[in-house]
Specification:
Chain B: Keywords: Flavoprotein, FMN, Oxidoreductase. The complex is a heterodimer of chains A (372) and B (203). In chain A, 46% of the residues lie in helices and 13% in strands. Chain A is an alpha/beta fold and 372 residues long. The radius of gyration of chain A is 20 Å and the shape is globular. Chain B contains 8 helices and 7 strands, in the order βαβααββαβαββααα. Classes of the chains: A alpha/beta (372), B alpha/beta (203).
């Protein structure tokens, strides 16, 4: 695996296909998602991440179930989320579900935490949506303790206290899953990621880049402030999306009817305006490579690049073709990003590397104790 | 040098809102030629404004207008009154800009309407919008109906414009409201502090 990870993330929406008029069933969507993840591994991608939603038209309400099922049918790809709802999930259950997944797939996983975006979801899980940021902070602080401390006694504002509680299973090799924090607007989330030395993922697929540059720079500065390293050593992930064909006119012609009515893109700026001002590339593989390489100019060298591929109601066959095309440009992307990468920028996190780092730190500490 | 940005939501060509905006700008210049005035007609930004409202996506040209407001000391907001209130374009524009752009800024409200019976829209529709945005609205609002453009009302309109402009410039060039939007991220809010100090949140 190269120093930077490339992958895909899915929202898990069931979107009407405006071209053939078909809306697939939830069953098909769930099975398609598994097929997409396996295809991602086949074309050489490093990461597959699924969203978590609890309302139609989205299907992925149970990410660890889906990821474990995919994990059983894959060998190398890192399984992740985009995002796991830290607000409405009980941190006790999150600690246990994701530790279980970590064992099942031998550490080949991490997770990205997010708040979710719609207020009505919160009361379905017993929470108050007006407290989203406070919930994020309290739940995450508890989640960390449940993974790092064998016995936890805890009291907070949003859930019942814990007395001498041990979350089971304990994390694999005694190293908690790596955590990314996803946010598109909240500085508190960037601060949380910085404080714990976690990753920060800016899903910059909608808004102009200036907005994200500010948040990422804030995270980088705070990461350094808390003593985890230099600002350029903070762990950053970015979103993006594309539609490729060998010939750029073919890409535009084929994607436009999907774009024009898509739930998130449609009825607003034109495909051309949207492409000019967001990470979206609709064009040839060469155009896609050129645009993707600019991300590091804007945001600094980073660790993880995820693309949204199964969007806008595209049929499964086309999504799989898109993954083939992504696989074809992957060696170039890896080589180009590596070529520009300064030596002091850390590699993307993996379980094995984190275990090794922990062991090295323990050895140093042990040596110091012996010499003292 | 003070900076005033005039935002006008008139839509027809030879719009009376544009005319009123021009009168207000002229009165500002007469009162203090050193004031820099930028005028933004919203009509050419109509697509950008609606795109922003359906996708949350602010185009570079709309961002430029937004930035003009960020750097303004005072704002003149002018809209036609349609169906008892400001126009959809006017509201959608202020929906599209960042929440805190007008915090503490002095704003002169002006509107035009088909009859004088619309004049209170200044106070029951526009004023609450700018109160919500935490702007400081000058006491005199300027409303122009067809009567005001005629020979009988013109003197009264001119004197209202001049009074409102005096109020605007007095506030803009005085010591201000003491409030302004900060672009800085607040590191010392209770929520921020609770991240590195979990016990703090439990109070």
């Amino acid at each position: 695996m190269s120093s930077m990870q490339f992958g895909i993330f899915t929202v898990g929406d069931v979107t009407h296909n405006p071209v053939d008029g078909v809306t697939i069933s939830e069953h098909e969507r769930i099975k398609n998602t598994v097929e997409i993840a396996k295809k991602a591994e086949e074309v050489g991608l490093d990461v597959f991440a699924t969203g978590e939603h609890h309302n139609p038209p989205f299907v992925p309400s149970s990410p660890t179930t889906t990821l474990a099922y995919i994990g059983a049918q894959t060998e190398k790809i890192i399984l992740s989320t985009s995002t796991t709802l830290i607000t409405t999930n009980d941190p006790v259950k999150l600690a246990e579900d994701y530790a279980t997944l970590q064992h099942l797939v031998d550490g080949r996983m991490d997770l990205m935490l997010g708040r979710g975006n719609t207020a009505p979801v919160y009361p379905w899980f017993g929470y108050d949506g007006s407290k989203a940021v406070e919930l994020t902070i309290e739940h995450y602080q508890l989640l960390r303790r449940l993974w790092e401390e064998d016995v936890v006694t805890w009291e907070g504002k949003f859930r019942t206290p814990l007395q001498s509680f041990t979350a089971t299973p304990r994390p694999l090799d005694g190293v908690a899953p790596f955590v990314w924090h996803g946010s598109i607007r909240t500085p508190e989330v960037a601060e949380l990621a910085a404080y714990y030395g976690d990753g920060y993922f800016a899903n910059n697929i909608f808004w102009p880049k200036e907005h994200y540059i500010r948040l990422i720079n804030f995270y980088r500065q705070r990461y350094a402030h808390y003593g985890h390293g230099e600002p350029q050593q903070a762990v950053v992930g970015l979103g993006g999306q594309f539609f490729m064909r060998k010939n750029s006119q073919d890409a535009v012609k084929e994607f436009r009817p999907y774009f024009d009515v898509a739930p998130v893109y449609g009825h607003g700026p034109s495909l051309e305006e949207f492409s000019a001002q967001t990470p979206l590339t609709v064009g040839s593989p060469q155009q896609f490579i050129e645009k993707t390489l600019t991300f590091a100019d804007f945001f600094g060298d980073y660790q993880r690049q995820l693309f949204l591929v199964d969007h806008a109601g595209l049929p499964q066959k086309v999504v799989l073709e898109q993954l083939d095309l992504l696989g074809e440009v992957l060696p170039t992307l890896r080589a180009e990003f590596d070529a520009r990468r300064p030596a002091d920028v850390p590699d993307a996190p993996t379980h094995a590397a984190r275990v090794a780092a922990r062991d090295a730190a323990n050895a140093t500490e042990g040596a110091e104790q012996v010499s003292a | 040098m003070s900076r005033v940005v005039v935002v006008s939501a008139g839509v027809s060509d030879a719009s009376s809102s544009t005319l009123l905006a021009q009168q207000i700008s002229a009165a500002i210049r007469r009162s203090d030629p050193s004031v820099s005035i930028e005028t933004v007609e919203l009509r050419p930004f109509a697509h950008d404004v609606i795109d922003a409202s359906v996708t949350g996506f602010v185009s570079p040209r709309l961002q430029h207008v937004h930035d003009l407001l960020v750097h303004a000391d005072g704002v003149v907001a002018v809209t036609p009154i349609y169906k008892a209130s400001y126009t959809g374009l006017f509201k959608a524009f202020f929906d599209a800009i960042e929440q805190d752009v007008l915090v503490g800024k002095t704003v002169l409200l002006a509107a035009t309407g088909g009859t004088a019976r619309h004049s209170l829209a200044l106070d029951y529709a526009m004023r609450p919008l700018f109160a919500y945005l935490q702007a400081v609205v000058v006491p005199t609002g300027v409303f122009a109906s067809p009567h005001d453009w005629g020979s009988e009302g013109a003197g009264a309109l001119t004197s209202r414009v001049e009074r409102a402009v005096r109020e605007l410039l007095s506030l803009v060039q005085g010591s201000g409201s003491g409030r302004s939007a900060s672009d800085e991220i607040d590191l010392f809010s209770e929520t921020m502090l609770s991240i590195s100090d979990p016990l703090r949140q439990q109070d």
